Every structure is written in structure tokens, then in C-alpha cells.
Amino acid sequence: MVDIIISMVVFKTPASQIDAVLSSFLNESNIINIEIYIFDNGLDSSIRDYCNVKGFNYLTLNNNVGFSGGHNFILKSTSSRAKSYLILNPDVYLMSDALNKLYIFMQSHSDCGIVSPKILNPDNTIQYVCRLLPTPIDLVSRRFFSRFIKPYLNKTELRFTNYDKTYDVPFIHGACLLINSAAYELVNGFDERYFLYMEDLDICRRISKSHRVYFYPEASAVHGHAKGSYKNKKLLYYHIISAIKYFNKWGWFFDLKRTETNKATLRKLLYYNF
């Protein structure tokens, strides 16, 4: 059994970018055993050739199965072969010793189902990836009116914590998540109804029923974070469809668990202005 299976899903991503991302941690003296799997939704022969040269596992199907489908195909085909799974976007660069730190943290916390490092922008500012469980209004406000609601984002994105301490949260953006393999298998992986977007929120909610979702700032990574749905109408369409599916599943304006979870989180983090 290996310690971590690295799971990366790509679509028309240059092999040079994938190599740069993987090189950010492969050249370190890792204390853990890893296997790397790349699922190609774009059927790109250059990525297949790159994997063959590097000795990585290349997987693909005859069609684009989306983010959830790609990761599930990797992880379900390697079931029981790893203690944990790293869900890694192809634009996330792990900083010094981050992978070791995440793994050690998970192994030393038996209640840990998911752990994420601190995520930074390329200019070294913080990406606010820790979130309360969103309402429909939250998503619309963040998407279209973010510049006008900074005090509101201070609460919903937990900015008031300064992102400088370890805590468990309802939801962490899925750019770089180390997932306990037992927790992943308990919930049967990602919900493949989400082709792209919202799958990270959904799996955090399901895993948090039995484990905790941790933010661990002692490990860090840099994320290019293209915000594709802000620039591409097709990606915005996927985002809207996934949001509809999410709220149909969990509740639109009447979601008692969301309300209870968010209030408990704010109290625990000493935010009382709600």
C-alpha cells in the first residue's frame, strides 16, 4: 500500500505545465511513497507520451467525463491501494515540504477526512478557499457583486481568521485536497452528477458527516486560479447547472443543516456578528 495516490484530471493542459506542477514536489526528499495518475479528458497524445516517458499512469476514456468522473475513475480503479488521495489541479504548485506536512497531519489526526494547505496567488496573497456552506444568494453575490460585498465575504469566506491557524471548516475549495481514502470510499467518491464545479463542496459536506475537513496553513501551495467561469460562457453554464443540481440535492432556501453548521463554525472561530 502506498501513502498517497496523486490524482490529476486534465483537459487540453500543456504537458509542460503538468511537468512544472509535478516537479514542484517530486524533486524533494519525500518521506512518503506516492503514485501519480493523470486522467486526460482531452485525449491528448502529447500528455500520453509525457506520462510514458516519466513513468506516470495515464488514463482516459473515449469522451470527456468531467472533473468528478475523471477523479473517480482513477481512485476507484486503485481502491484500497493507498492511505490517502491528493486531488491536485494542474495549476497548483506545492511549496517546500507541503506534501509531507499534509500527510503527517492526516496520519496524526484520526478524525481527518480532508485537509487542505494554505493556497496562495502567484503574487503571494491569500486565496480565500475556506468557506461557509453557501446559500444561492451567496453564490450570486460572489459571482457578480464581489467588489461591493467585502464585509460579507469577511464572514462567508472566513477572512476574519487571517488564515493563520489550523481549524476545521464546512467547505474548502478543491484545488488541492488530501482525502483520507477510507473517508472517500465511505461516501463512494465524488458525485458524478456534477460535471464541473460544486463537486468539492458536495464531497466536503458528505465526508464531514463522519470526519473533519481541515485547513492546515503550515503547508502551502500556489494556485494560478484562472477563474474560468468568469471568462468563458461555456464554463459559466457548467457552473450554473452544477449549482442548480447542488441546491436541488441539499436545499435552496431551507437547509437546516447548512444553517446549523455555519452558526456553529462562526461561534467556534469567535465570530459573533451574525
From TrEMBL:
Top-level taxon in the UniProt lineage: Bacteria
Any Pfam family matching the protein: Glyco_tranf_2_3
InterPro entries from the UniProt entry: Nucleotide-diphossugar_trans
SUPFAM superfamilies listed in its UniProt record: Nucleotide-diphospho-sugar transferases (SSF53448)
Protein known as: Glycosyltransferase family 2 protein
Origin species: Polynucleobacter brandtiae
